[in-house]
Structure formats: structure tokens, C-alpha cells
Amino acid sequence: MAKPARKGPVRTVNIFCAACKTQLYRYRKGGKGALVKCFKERISEDFTTTACTCPGCGQVFARETLIRGTPAYKMIGGKVVMK
């Protein structure tokens, strides 16, 4: 399968923890759909100290995985909010 585009989309979104509203990432998202996965190369700003764990409440909000051969975070449903 094809890898995601190198340059990536221009539109950025802010990703927050659904429980405590702490900002987790600033992410270059493509498309209009729900946030299912975050490719690591598209994260423009990372506010977390430990991967996939909220720095505010300590909740695990994603899992590390490989999608189409590219490292990514697969989001757990209902744990993050995108604005």
C-alpha cells in the first residue's frame, strides 16, 4: 500500500484530552473526517512528555502502531477532542 504524502496537508488542528482539556498535539490533518490516527511525521508540535499519555491526567489516549509502513498513533475512541 502507498505511504502518506511526504509534504502533508497544510491545515493544522489542535488535539486536546477529552477528560481534562489539556492540549496534546498540533497536527497537520488531511481530510474532513474524524481523527482516527496521527502520523508522527505530521505532528508539528508535541505537548506530551510520555508518548500516548496525557500530561494533565495521565490517561492513555492512543497506541503506537505502524500504518502503511509509517509510524503512527492510533487514537482510542472518545479519549481526544479535535478543534
Number of strands: 7
Which residues sit in consecutive blocks of at least 5 with pLDDT less than 50?
A: none
Overall tally of domains: 1
Order of helices and strands: EEEEEEE
**C-alpha termini separation:** 30 Å
Overall SS class:
mainly beta
Q: Which descriptor suits the 3D outline?
A: globular
Specify the helix fraction band. under 10%
CA radius of gyration is: 12 Å
β-strand percent reads 35-45%
Mean pLDDT: 92
User: Strand order, biggest sheet?
Assistant: 4-2-1-7
Please write out the topology.
Blueprint: E1 12-17, E2 23-28, E3 37-39, E4 43-46, E5 62-67, E6 70-75, E7 80-82
Question: What can you see in these coordinates?
Answer:
This protein is mainly β and 83 residues long. The chain has strands spanning 12-17, 23-28, 37-39, 43-46, 62-67, 70-75, 80-82. It has one domain (12-82). The termini are far apart.
Structural descriptors:
four-stranded antiparallel beta sheet, mainly beta, three-stranded antiparallel beta sheet, 83 residues
Quick gist of this model?
With 83 residues, the chain is mainly beta. The chain contains no helices and 7 strands.
